[in-house]
Amino acid sequence: MGLFPSSKDFKDGPGVEKDTPRKTGVGRFFELVGRDMSGMFLANLLTCIGFLPVICLVYIGFLMNNLTVMIVSAIAGGILAGPALAGVYDTVLRALRDEAGYWWTTYRRAFRQNFKASILPGILYCVVVTVQIFLVYFCFNMLYHGTNVGVPMWVATPRGLTRHTKTALHGMCRAVLLWAGHRPKTDPRPLNQLVMLST
Question: Which of 22, 66, 101, 132 is the most exposed place for a label (fewest CB within 10 A)?
Fold first, then answer.
């Protein structure tokens, strides 16, 4: 056995019984980390690459200090950001359901299947975040120049940003519940069919 062991260095074990109950708690967490962490990391990396056009284009509008350019940039970049998010969500949820498959094929299939259905949510998400970034910049810029923008603006802007934080906290709570062994009810149908059913 060398510095880096290979599969030939280990003997075959008895395997996993077909009717073995699913692990819960810490055992489930480490099972997911050991089995799916690299696939989840790479799917998230692809999603970050999908958001690069939004980030770059909105930053150009930000440097120009022009909200119109920022919003048009968010619309253009949101066309790619929505399907990228749908791909990563599908990849992670299928890993949590213990479905067999390689992360790249799962991501690519979800990206293609949900492309049209996820364009509008991607655009809306990018536009809302862009407007909130501009409002925060606007409030601090006006304050820097000695102009008070008023209490409603100061209350509304952080409230919008807090909603994103609240959504992130909700996601973290769901992750803790999954870690504790609570499984969400899932549906094998593509995201666009589930969205149509919910409306």
Answer: 22
d(CA 147, CA 183): 52
- Tell me the DSSP string of the chain: --SS--GGGS-------TTPPPP-THHHHHHHHHHHHHHHHHHHHHHHHHHHHHHHHHHHHHHHT-HHHHHHHHHHHHHHHHHHHHHHHHHHHHHHTT--S-HHHHHHHHHHHTHHHHHHHHHHHHHHHHHHHHHHHHHHHHHHTT----HHHHHHHHHHHHHHHHHHHHHHHHHHHHHTTPPPP---S-HHHHHHHH-
CB within 8 Å of 48: residues ≥ 6 apart: none
Q: Which amino acid is at 185?
A: K
Give the integer Cα–Cα distance in Å for 177 and 155. 32
- For 19-23, the CB contacts below 8 A with 24+ separation are 22/98, 22/181
Tens-digit pLDDT profile for residues 5-34: 555 655 555 555 677 777 788 888 888 778
Q: What are phi and psi of 15, to 5 degrees?
A: 90, -175
Reported as a single tens digit per residue, the pLDDT across 173-188 is 454 444 444 444 555 5
Look up the pTM and report it: 0.63
